[in-house]
Design brief:
The protein is of the alpha/beta class. It has a domain of about 120 residues: 3-Layer(aba) Sandwich (Rossmann fold). Helices cover about 40% and strands about 10% of the residues. It contains 6 helices and 4 strands. A 4-stranded parallel β-sheet has the order 2-1-3-4, sandwiched between helices. Strand 3, helix 5 and strand 4 form a beta-alpha-beta unit. Helix 1 crosses helix 3, helix 1 runs antiparallel to helix 6 and helix 4 packs parallel to helix 5.
């Protein structure tokens, strides 16, 4: 059989709708701010994969290179935010899980949460849409480490939106993504 690889689906409507459905399980109006936190990458790695020469070098570089990880994160965030009718002031996109001392994609989730608490933001809801299923590293980092730091800085609550896991909206989305991609591949 012929194999077809799906190179990306970060802005596929079915994925965005599935994440939005997860978000609707929470009373969004009860939160002061929504965070979209993605697993970070070293900037060096982003530049290495950049065929356009624009990544991290020009303003608004994510709008110029749709294949870039940071651009794909932004497309996912904006797509979910639109589906949840979130204004740009209600959300922030951040990056987590950095290692070592070299520069990684910014802003860092922990630093943003500290700043939000200092600004008087009390209740934060966090999406981690880089993962379609719950990841132990993310559960520990967001639900424990960053939550404790946020509460210690003056926040009152930090909730993590559950991953898509085996939810019906995700299974339906995955089927749609595969069907859409395979129909294009064999036309």
């Amino acid at each position: 059989p012929k194999l077809h690889f799906i190179s990306g689906f970060s802005d596929h409507p079915a994925l965005l709708e599935a994440f939005a459905e997860k978000g609707k399980e929470y009373a969004l109006e009860d939160y002061d701010h929504i965070l979209f936190s993605y697993h970070g990458l070293p900037k060096r790695q982003i530049r290495k994969g950049d065929l356009t020469g624009t990544c991290l070098k020009v303003p608004d570089c994510c709008r110029k290179n749709r294949r870039c990880y940071a651009a794909q994160c932004l497309m996912t965030t904006e797509g979910i935010a639109r589906r949840l009718s979130l204004t740009a002031k209600r959300w922030t996109q951040t990056y987590q899980s950095r290692l070592g001392k070299e520069p990684w994609l910014r802003p860092y989730t922990g630093e943003v949460l500290q700043a939000l608490a200092k600004r008087g933001i009390k209740k934060v809801l966090v999406f981690c849409p880089a993962f379609v299923c719950d990841c132990l590293e993310t559960l520990e980092e967001i639900s424990s480490q960053y939550k404790n730091e946020f509460l210690s800085a003056g926040g009152e609550s930090l909730d993590l939106v559950e991953g898509l896991n085996d939810s019906a909206p995700w299974i339906e989305a995955l089927e749609r993504i595969v069907r859409d991609e395979t129909s294009r591949a064999y036309v």
